[in-house]
Design a protein that fits this description.
Elements (H helix, E strand, L loop, with lengths): L9 H8 L6 E4 L6 H7 L7 E6 L2 H10 L7 E5 L5 H7 L5 E7 L4 H5 L26 H7 L2 H12 L4 H12 L7 H11 L2 H6 L5 H12 L1 H15 E11 L2 H15 L19 E3 L9 H6 L7 E7 L4
Parallel strand pairs: 1-2, 1-4, 2-3, 4-5
Antiparallel strand pairs: 5-7, 6-7
Helix pairs in contact: 7-8, 7-11, 8-9, 12-13
């Protein structure tokens, strides 16, 4: 299956990145190379791009797409949370810009063998973004306790029926292991009242999202590494982060806000005494959203939000 992915908010990301033709840039979620291609097309022969992705298929697809820029590009199979270590391998210690396009790619959703979607009933419960990882969604669903499943579905799926869904999963797996997307979908469907199933979206959507996030440690990776990425920016450098659900967006918003105003002094203090100074500033008070036109030709853009942070000072 060919790796296809429509890059979301592509034009807006390039505009906000303010590319320096001689600069060094990192695409931490390389995917099919859509954002990376646009960055490379704006770079001079001196410019460089480091592309990082943990997905084997994405690495292969991006290598093909970026072949014409081979002198400017280095592609590394890793997780973006290892960005500092990856850059140090190339003796790079600061960069001009970073792009993160979070979430799951069109290819990952559409490939039945990856098991990311509830739309293919025969798909195995896999959901790994990195197939070097042994633990799969099947393992998670069949080994997590009822309380752990409830926590995952409630926190990462924000599903008000999380308790009942967890209860139904545990009851079903006592009879046999849950192995396919179809089996899990039917269990979830039975746990949600018929009236809700008729009026809401697909009943399995939130649970599948929750399992994927938990399995791949998506929110932990973002929470633990975003400030380090800001630290990697040169003065005046920018990081552009595209999110697809409220949990990711909240993390990005809060970390940008913290780095814009790190003061920990009580609000009634007349002057700051903690000594913590701003690292930079969020470029937009509100996230940049896709245009009506983009949402028409790419339905997966509907939930996308772009936030941009610029490190303080210019060299």
């Amino acid at each position: 299956m060919e790796f296809k992915h429509k890059s979301v908010l592509l034009k807006e990301t390039m505009e906000h990145l303010k590319i320096n033709p001689d600069g060094i840039y990192v695409d931490g979620t390389l995917g099919g190379g859509g954002h990376a291609y646009e960055v490379c097309s704006r770079l001079s022969p001196k410019g460089r791009l480091i592309g990082i992705d943990q997905d084997e298929d994405a690495i292969k697809a991006a290598a093909r797409r970026l072949a014409e820029f081979e002198d400017k590009v280095r592609i590394v199979r890793s997780n973006y949370c290892q960005m500092r270590e990856v850059l140090e391998e190339y003796e790079i210690f600061q960069v001009d810009g970073i792009v993160l396009d979070l979430g799951v790619s069109s290819y990952q959703l559409d490939d039945p063998g990856r098991g990311f979607t509830y739309r293919n009933g025969e798909a195995p419960l896999d959901m790994r973004m990195d197939n070097r990882q042994e633990f799969t969604a099947k393992d998670l669903v069949n080994t997590y306790s009822e309380m752990e499943l409830y926590r995952v579905i409630r926190e990462y799926g924000e599903d008000k029926f999380a308790k009942n869904i967890a209860k139904h999963i545990v009851a079903a797996r006592k009879k046999k292991d849950i192995e396919t997307a179809g089996e899990l979908t039917e269990i979830i469907r039975a746990a949600i009242p018929a009236k809700v199933r008729m009026s809401g979206g697909h009943p399995a959507k939130r649970t599948f999202q929750a399992i994927r996030i938990e399995l791949n440690g998506e929110l932990e990776a973002l929470q633990d590494s975003l400030e380090d990425m800001i630290d990697l920016l040169k003065p005046g450098g920018r990081i552009c982060v595209i999110t697809f659900h409220s949990l990711e967006d909240r993390i990005v918003k809060n970390i940008f806000k913290k780095n814009e105003n790190p003061c920990t002094c009580p609000k009634d203090f007349p002057v700051c005494v903690c000594g913590k100074i701003p690292i930079g500033k969020a470029i937009n008070r509100k996230p940049v959203l896709p245009s009506e036109e983009e949402m028409i030709y790419n339905s997966r853009a509907k939930s996308a939000k772009l936030r941009v942070f610029e490190k303080m000072g210019r060299e």
